[in-house]
Structures are given as C-alpha cells and as structure tokens.
Automatic annotation (TrEMBL):
Pfam families: 7tm_1. The keyword Transmembrane helix applies. One of its GO terms (biological process) is regulation of gene expression. The chain crosses the membrane at residues 46-66, 75-101, 121-142, 163-183, 189-220, 241-260, 280-301. Belongs to the G-protein coupled receptor 1 family. It is found in: Cell membrane. Its main location: membrane. It is a multi-pass membrane protein. The gene is MC1R. This is Melanocyte-stimulating hormone receptor. Keywords: Cell membrane, G-protein coupled receptor, Glycoprotein, Membrane, Receptor, Transducer, Transmembrane, Transmembrane helix. InterPro entries: GPCR_Rhodpsn (IPR000276), GPCR_Rhodpsn_7TM (IPR017452), MC3-5R (IPR001908), Melcrt_ACTH_rcpt (IPR001671). One of its GO terms (molecular function) is melanocyte-stimulating hormone receptor activity. It comes from Acipenser oxyrinchus oxyrinchus.
Length: 318
C-alpha cells in the first residue's frame, strides 16, 4: 500500500480495476502516449509540515473552547467537533507520512500485514473525518441560518440537548459509514453515495448562505434608506458578501477536485484524459489537508472571544 495515498476509496478501487482488467487498462494507457501526463510530485516534508501545523491549530481551538465558558454554546460545540474532524485528518496525514519517510530511509522495517492493518485504521479515520467534516460544516451553516431567521426562538430551537444529540448522531453516522466505505470499497455504489452526499451538502449550504445574504442585503438597504448613509452600509453589505464567498470558495477549492476525482473513477476510469487527471491526486490531497488548516481561521479565529482565549493559551496563562 502506498502511504502517500490518502483515500482508500480511490486507491484500492483503481488498483482492483487495473488488476481485474489489465488488458483493457494497458490498451487505455497506450492511447495516452500522445498526451502529456506529468505526475505532480509533492515532497513528504510538505505533507508533514502542513499536517503538523493543522494539528496544532485545531488542538488550540478545542482547548480554547473547553477553557472559555463563554464559548459553551451549540455554535461553538459544532466548531469544536469540526476541529476534532480536522484533527483526524491531520493525525492520519502525519502518521502516514512519518511511516513513509521512515520506510524510505530504511529506519523502519515492517511486514505487509502490519502495513495493511495500520493502513485500514488510517483509512477509517480519514473516511470518518470526511463525512463528519461535511456534516459539521452543514450544522454550523444551519445554526447561523436559525440565528438569523429565527432569532427570537433560537434558544428554544437549538438547545444544548439538541446540539449534543446532533453531534452524537453525526459521529455515529460517520463511524458506520467509514466502516462501510472500507469494507465495500470495490463497489461503485459506495463512491456514488459519497459523491451524492457531497453534492447534497454543497447545495444545502449554498442555498442557506444565499438566503442569508439576500436577507442581509435587504436589511442593509433598509438601513441605508433610513439613515441616508449609503456608503457605509454598502461597505457592510460587501463585507458580508466577501465572507460568504470565502466560506463557499474555500470549501469548493479544497474538496471539489477530490470529489471530481471520485466522479471520474465511476464515469471514465479507463479514459486517457481521466487517467491523466488521476496523476494529479497528490495535489488534491494537499488541498484537503489545507482545508483542515484553513477551517479554524474561517470559522473560529474570526471570533474575538476565541482569539482572546487563544492568546491566553499561547501565553501559557491557563
């Protein structure tokens, strides 16, 4: 098993397809001779560096939320769980990369069975992180949506008990789904389910953000008409638009290529152009790891209360 690979749904599926139909695969590769398919090589050190930074950043977020009682609310519970999901990605990446480096240098010698068992554990962690990350991103979006459109009823709708129930349900579903993904990785239906889940969450979040932005824009226009201060409120509206653009843009940039990769595996696994696209897989992995690094900046570090607590942690004033 190649330790630089990140998701078993891609690697194992491609491997099984190639082994089961070697002649067809060779014919497809022969057609790629006229194509320039340069594989992107990314140093293990880069994977390790980003993974360690992401791990440290997300641990700080979790500790800050635990420490500050003012952050003990459903919104920050979801952010904390999102950070835990990102920690799973970071830990998986760091452990996998370190093992790859040690094996390459001849420092560590392990049997195939040990490598396979460890790889299955890492794969389950990553699959669980993928599902839980998407789910908690949706939960955060829904929480913001309720805050804006049902402000007076927010505390009765999003109670602590309901937030905890949502969190437990997401982690249970993530664990079960990751087990199914690893067990039935050869089945295209599993990949299709993951792609469908991604598209559903993307459409759901985009719809809610669009609705929130529309309300914010109308609210800004009313304030402008009342106070006759067009310039100031136009700036406020633009700031909200930029924030929403960053949230959705980073999500698409980091996860879009990976799920496009999965889509091509199902639709055109032997097509020469698709095979060339598969050569960029390491780039998609870096983007996913970068998402774990960027998430706390967007969803957490923008909070003044959280920034204050993080500064206290960094200054060792626990």
């Amino acid at each position: 098993m190649n330790f630089t690979t990140f998701n078993p749904l891609v690697v194992k599926h491609v491997a099984s397809e190639n082994n089961s139909d070697n002649a067809t695969s060779n014919a497809s590769y022969s057609n790629t001779t006229t194509l320039v398919c340069n594989k992107i090589i990314i140093p293990h050190e880069l994977f390790l560096t980003i993974g360690l930074l992401s791990l440290l950043e997300n641990i700080l977020v979790v500790l800050a939320i635990i420490k500050n009682r003012n952050l003990h609310s459903p919104m920050y519970y979801f952010i904390c769980c999102l950070a835990v999901s990102d920690i799973l990605v970071s830990v998986s990446n760091v452990v996998e990369t370190m093992f790859m480096l040690l094996i390459d240098q001849g420092v560590l010698v392990v049997t195939f069975n040990v490598i396979q068992n460890m790889d299955d554990i890492i794969d389950m962690m990553i699959c669980s992180s993928v599902v839980s990350s998407l789910s908690f991103l949706g939960a955060i979006t829904a929480d913001r949506y309720i805050t804006i459109f049902y402000a007076l009823r927010y505390h009765s709708i999003m109670t602590t008990q309901r937030a905890v129930a949502i969190i437990i349900a997401i982690w249970v579903a993530s664990t079960l789904s990751s087990t199914l993904f690893i067990t039935y990785y050869k089945n295209n239906a599993i990949i299709i389910c993951l792609i469908t889940f991604f598209l559903f969450m993307l459409i759901l979040m985009a719809t809610m953000y669009l609705h929130m932005f529309t309300l914010a824009h109308l609210h800004a226009k009313r304030i402008t008409a009342f106070y006759k201060n067009r310039r100031q409120n136009q700036a406020t509206s633009m700031k909200g638009a930029v924030t929403l653009l960053i949230l959705l843009g980073v999500f698409l940039i980091c996860w879009g290529p990976f799920f496009l990769h999965l889509t091509l595996i199902v639709t055109c696994p032997k097509n020469p152009h698709c095979l060339c696209f598969f050569n960029h897989f390491n780039l998609f992995l870096i983007l996913i790891i970068c998402n774990s690094f960027i998430d706390p900046i967007i969803y957490a570090f923008r909070s003044q209360e959280l920034r204050k607590t993080l500064k206290e942690l960094l200054l060792c004033s626990w």
